[in-house]
């Protein structure tokens, strides 16, 4: 083995000759710890301990003494290499064993070997009829084949899903990065990065390691994928300002350039540790698997009970019959009879075992996962499909999941004309002058920006840089502007970069022929953009839709301030755009100053930007609510923005709670359990908060689905019952942790997963209803006919039972378990994970149909000869047995249609002709039955029937449909309340809405009561003072003088004024109460953060 393969990835036992260990370095960034950095002596001292001069970088031949030596051996032995150990994937044999490790399959295997042994013994026993083929081995062999098919299907499915997942993640991870080594800038593989390297960072880079910022210009990173925090993180060197000097692996450089000292690589980095934590955890059994195991045990017990009852009955019958004979049978005959009776009992067990059930589950899941891939759901964990069907809660990340993770201009007032949506932007452009307004606006956006168009980490063309600047460039591009052409033509005189102190960016250009025209044209022009209230305060004029300059008087200023307030109330980030034409002498006088010309600006307008919702999110949330699934939004964003987004998406409703992560963490476990049922928004959350929410919900028996795309979402995705990650925007950590990957990153695709999950559960239940009906009827008929016959033989032969009990079951599994979902599935609530697999409606149908089938077949067995005008000849006996067999089969054919609806619906034919698989299988079964009856005489002990006998047997079989309707219409007589299966809902939207409405009414009545008391101050002067103090504390103003108390009591319109004032006052009170409550929440949040 080569030496590099023998060398361990990481060695934590020593520091080597370095003054710091890998553990100390990793604690610097998780969490970020300026205190620890200070204890280590700061950045300069840390570099010395790592034996690196940050001005020169590492030596490219460090540790190389001989030609055979490899560089950085000692460094990598202490701090590790920048690779993660390859995840150990299961071999195909391990997948086979995992698929076989199922109670039902093991029980079927035992039954098959018993059946095989008994069948072979019967075939070659002296009692075997010479005119019958030796087919006793077929039953056991067929069950073994069914088991093998299930195991192979599951194993192949798991193998394919793993292969698809690897293919999805097959990105070119081995990319080139720039480092400083030996005083020169070099490009090396990302795998060759070492602790101590000096890494060069540029806009668009995905940081592959943890580092400390050494220096640069205006470096800002997007750490939302790692921390969930959407705000851009400005980087400053250690101890300088309030900036952050730590650079996290997995973050993205948005703007600026800089250098970083690498302090953690591979599995010691923030990204690597999160990836490693996602590995090696086994998932628990899903609700359906648990229920199937319980059902298999119950069926086995019932089968043994029936077999024992048959054994005792036939033994008693044999000895009673023998004792009544003249001579008691000899020992040999008794032994042969006992063996025959034991075989009959074992046959009952084999018949009772639902060998088609595992096949139904496998087919349902395999079909669903295949179809879900077409709906952009890549199912990594097969069982997650059915688990999602009964999800009671969805905890969704905001950025990149509900929203597009792309800041976008969504509203604006530019040149006195407004647009209120993205779709309305084109209409705005038609209202303003394209030369005087649009060109001025486009030039401002293009030259006053450092963002550019390039390829993102997925190779897609997109804007790279500050999210605000990307939003503005996207806005101008949507109107047909080319920022590259404008920048190419513009002659930049001076740039004043964005400053957090000024909150503006200013670019001065020299006016040329192709420069945008303005009414106050001069030699130079300063373009300004920034915080709206700052820029607006520096403006003295504004332009209208024709490009004419208007004076910004007090009234107009108030109007613009109201626009800013309105946008801010909708959680929009407001940006003002302005310009100023400057003469040459003015420019020369100000050229040497560091302060931009921010006086006497002309306002172009104000835009509101936000991360917009994904298309279809609002509709999906509404459908989730309709389906009884509670949607919660968990985000790292601030509370105000989170609440606004949640309201727009329909997540935050009346009566719902919105909290911050610090507030939730400050609560006790019991308080968390009480508040989380109504929690709809959790802002400023950490990864720990997400796992707390998931665990608290799971403690209260909720089935939780968690969506996310960032590295920080990994632990919660792993803990949730079903984890959804984003296939496009999602990090590898999120994909590794998830059960289902949304290939199109569309929140609406989760609805598809819910539908398919419910379809899988329903498919299994439909098949179970059909299967158990067949089994009960077959066991009862075999039992009764064997006890009632002279030679203790069943009316249905072993081969006939094979066709009914195995082939039809397998085909029925394919027919019933592959029904596609319909929107009707969203009209019901989730089923509890503790609910029995067989509900009251199913149980009623199983018992009712089984009794009907048994009665019909017994009537035909004992009354069939006179009904069908048959004699006592052997041929007529064969005809009667064939008629019984044919009726039994067609009862199952029509009952299969009946089992399509297990929800109590009368119309069993609904959507049946849209399911070509079901129709095809029904045709195949009928044709095969015709061939068996007509041509299968030797093997199946049948004889051809006349057309009239065919017609009568089919009509009798079709009675399953009206009998099914009658069973559905039978009253439940109060029994259904013992079979309640709806999952327990911690909080319902209707109840929260009513409680919220009652609270509003209570507040309104309180306001009305105070208003009435305020009209009669002479009754209680102190009461009036109390009212004044209450209102002042809430509104911060003195009570108004109402129209109800004018100096002239007969003033016209006084009653109207009184009513209008009461309404206005009530509205003010409610608004003030809400603001006061929000102020308290923000205050509490700030206290927690501090």
From TrEMBL:
Main subcellular location of this protein, as a coarse class: membrane
CDD domains (alphabetical): P-type_ATPase_Ca_PMCA-like
GO cellular component, one term: plasma membrane
Gene3D superfamilies per record: Calcium-transporting ATPase, cytoplasmic domain N, Calcium-transporting ATPase, cytoplasmic transduction domain A, Calcium-transporting ATPase, transmembrane domain, HAD superfamily/HAD-like
Entry keyword annotation includes Aminoacyl-tRNA synthetase: no
GO BP annotation list: intracellular calcium ion homeostasis
GO MF, any single term: P-type calcium transporter activity
PROSITE patterns in UniProt: ATPASE_E1_E2
Annotated catalysed reactions: Ca(2+)(in) + ATP + H2O = Ca(2+)(out) + ADP + phosphate + H(+)
Entry's localization field: Endomembrane system; Membrane
Keywords for the protein's UniProt record, in alphabetical order: ATP-binding, Calcium, Calcium transport, Ion transport, Magnesium, Membrane, Metal-binding, Nucleotide-binding, Translocase, Transmembrane, Transmembrane helix, Transport
Identification of the protein by name: Calcium-transporting ATPase
Source organism: Circinella minor
Upper classification of the organism: Eukaryota, Fungi, Fungi incertae sedis, Mucoromycota, Mucoromycotina
